[in-house]
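Inputs:
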Amino acid sequence: MDKSFWGVMIMPTKMGKRLVGICSVAVTAIYTAGYIYTLPSVQAQASSVPSLSPTSNSTPGAAAAAHSASRSSHSRNGTSSSTSAKSGSSKSGTSTNGSSATSASSQSSKSSTKSSSKPPSKPAVKYKDGTYTGSGTNPYGSLSVSLTIAHGKIASVKITQWTMHYPQYVIDPQLPQEVVSMQTWQIYIVSGATASTYNFAQAVYLALQKAKA
Amino acid sequence: MMVDSEMEAPAKTGIQHTVESYLLMGTVVSIRVVGRGQVTDMHSAIKRAFEAMRFVEETCSRFAENSALRELCRHPGELMRVPDVLFETIRVAVEISALTDGVFDPTIGSALEAHGFNRHYLTGDTVNSQVECAEPVSYRDITLDETERTVLLHKPMLIDLGAVAKGLAVDLAAKELVGWDGFAIDAGGDLYLHGMDFTGEPWTVGIQHPLHKDAMMCWLQTTDAAICTSGSYERRSPVASEVHHLINPKTGKSTRGLLSCTVVAPLAILADAVSTAAFVLGPKHALEFVSALDLDALCISDALDMTMTDSMERYLK
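Outputs:
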């Protein structure tokens, strides 16, 4: 072991526990404080300059001095761009769920609902030979696949259309190959390419649904 | 080996799953949720999780003019009271800095900016903090007051919290998803996994090949853990191509010898910071550093050799 690095460091294993502790406390403290962010968010510490009232402080942000001390939940001058994520938000969450992801997510939830309503036993899946298409969409674009069944098995998967915001090589040919070798539409998370991974899985899933019919 | 029965997923009745992705923090962030219950409830939970992440970005980003971080950096030499999120994030960054004797250092913002890591990922606009760093700075030039929640920057500096804030965002998102049977948050290399995936198994995660985006180096299977990868292959300096975004504050240069370092830890903020520090420490010290902290890591060298801590093997699939 090279002495130059740890040098005078003491008992690193204890350091590990300490770090975990510091991180847990930090995450919990931030979560508990709530996600209120108003501008200006940073102020000179008025108490350090007792002769000045908070509002006559020299820093531009001084007017909001009361804000961070009390963690008050009201926002100032309409500059707040986040909402409380605590108690009230579970109620408001459902009513404002009109994000751009809705189309993709409703589609995906549909497919999951469909498959989960099937009996839990192990049905022998039989695919009819032929070529089937499917597509997947999310806020970053869409892709389509063409899937060929030969002798009841997935013989090939080809990406036929791609409008994702990043290049196709991120998942192609790795994922199509995986579908063929694993004989399933279920593919795992690819770090850094999840959006297209999911689109791809969805597209293959839909194509396989057609192959079953 | 996967068999035909697995085509009929989800394997368990009544188990729903869904996924949503957004562009956040310079990357595509995807959250998937698995569990019993209404899919609409899942979407509400995911929405809250994204709000938490957006909050971290708004407050801690070096790229956003209006962030609390940038505001703090406009006031060197003054005792500043900052939002809790910024205070705690700086505190974690300073702790890791002290632990690594400055190999990890959040005051590296100006150096990153000078190397051309200064483009906002959404607008593409060049960000210039106007912070003039005439003299060398380090984490020792930051003073934190725990009771008053104040930060004092002793010199002009540009703080970069990139190596902790993304992890923090993932951890906060995880808090919003508590209660579901399983969830996976993927913020481009920073992952947090909980419970089961939609087949009822622990989550399986591919570790990307550093040179071939279409290939995996290996697969890990775990749950209730964070996995973060720091790699030199994602961000290259537009100014000098041999420079990547993981710069050693002590030398001002980017570390050679490793292509990526993946750390498994109980929290993403920890995994993120430790993987960054380990990467910068380089091939000689990375694993020693991580195992001394009782965490696990997997490193991929320039020569594509894979090395890992002893207890890392249990995650390999």
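Remarks. Residues 65-159 of chain B form a domain with the T-fold fold (CATH 1.10.3980.10). Chain B touches chain A through 107 residues (CB under 8 Å).
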